[in-house]
Amino acid sequence: MADAIIRGMHGCSREESYVAPEDPLVREKLEWFRDQKLALMMHFGIYSEIGICESWPLSDGDAEWGRNEIDWESDPETFKNQYRDLNKSFNPVRLRPEVWADVAARNGFRYLIFTTKHHDGFCLFDSKYTDYKSTAPDCPFHTHRYADIAKHVFDAFRARGIGIAAYFSKPDWHCPWYWAEGMDRPVAYNRNPTYKPSEHPEIWEKFVEFTHNQMMELVRDYGPIDILWLDGGQVNPGNGQDIRLSEFVKEARKIRPGLITADRTVGGENENYITPEQSVPDYPIRVPWESCVTVGYAFSYRFADRYKTPRQLVHLLTDVVCRGGNLALNIAPQPDGNLPAAAVRAVDGLGAWLRDNGEAIYGTRLADPNEDGITAFTASKDGRKHYAVVRLPEGEKLGETLTIPWPHEAEKVTLLGLEAPMSFEKTDAGLVLRIPEILVGHNPIAPAFRIE
After folding, report:
1. How far apart are alpha carbons 328 and 278 in whole angstroms?
2. What is the distance between the alpha carbons of residues 197 and 416, in angstroms, rounded to a whole number?
3. Alpha carbon distance 316, 327 (integer Å)
4. What is the tens place of the pLDDT at every residue in 274-332?
5. Pick from 96, 124, 145, 302: CA 20 to 30 A from residue 268's CA?
6. In a 3-state reduction of DSSP, which class is residue 353?
7. Domain limits at 155?
8. pTM exceeding 0.90
9. CATH code of residue 292
10. What secondary structure does DSSP assign to 414-445, as a single string?
């Protein structure tokens, strides 16, 4: 596995191991994906109630880092029972999917990645195959009009023209056929099954059937979805955990032709794009990819979270796009279902920048060069237009001229947002632009220019 992962990019398969899909509809859908550039990711679940890490505190093998916020209970078994029972108090009564969708739409998010089920097994959709869900009678939220959370969230985002990716955890730590009782290892010993599937194929087959059934519910009953975003890379044939994913994907695409599958960190035909986590590669990647990064410091809600500034978000998005990828920006809803106001203010700043400069982001492809110092370059798909985005550091003010290190010829340069034609001189250092007087002495987040 070590050879398959890019160092410094947590959970990301290597570009060299990428397997391009043969299905022409999937290839076409991947071109759509590469046009979108910006996704809203949302981690929401029972863990949100108490502001801790999602799922991972349940795994004894991950306790050293997964339980570093568990300061009220020292006994692991007591804590794990407390966590599992959070379904009995989950009640996000301020949840308004249409408000979430409005925030996404006004700020330029083009698709949603939503946690329908994390590793803890609690479902935010009305699965027929478990009672551990937001619609179950023992969950107080089950009487709410939005109890089938995934359905209403997906419907609200689709109504605003936003694509849908269903996050689904392949491992299920609540399923009796994954963390099975009375087996070789204690329940929650680590993130893997409590048995070897090869030695207990009858139990493993029950888990495979359960997993296929739940994924098919999402594809069939919660569609149309564009992407099936599969987490839990330990569930893979090379690790002795073969859920026969290719068999499932073949059936799923009969219902949703062109469905993209992101089988994270596993590689092969079902990892249609690769997914760095909480990191961005520092060089171009020429296969489809997407970095998932948080607006705060964690994927799940924290009561004392610290959020990135609009400048940081704009520069982050520009870093990703100029290197050929998409950015999945995670906002974690509060326990009551509302979005944190500070997180919304941060993405409102990003959205304001995109309204003026989105032409340099959406639908673009890698440019040559793709960046030089603080200047990032992108290109239109036909190559007739290029864009330069200058990632100005905080406090650095524009002077009367600005040098864009563009090594090629240029006939026309336009400042986006103002649509102002720029006077410029071609020199050995690049294009020396005369900055409009209105901007001289100011510190814009990232001025962007169209080069023709």
Report:
1. 10
2. 57
3. 8
4. 999 999 999 999 999 999 999 999 999 999 999 999 999 999 999 999 999 999 999 99
5. 124
6. helix
7. 2-360
8. yes
9. 3.20.20.80
10. EETTTTEE--EEEETTEEEEE--TTTTT---S
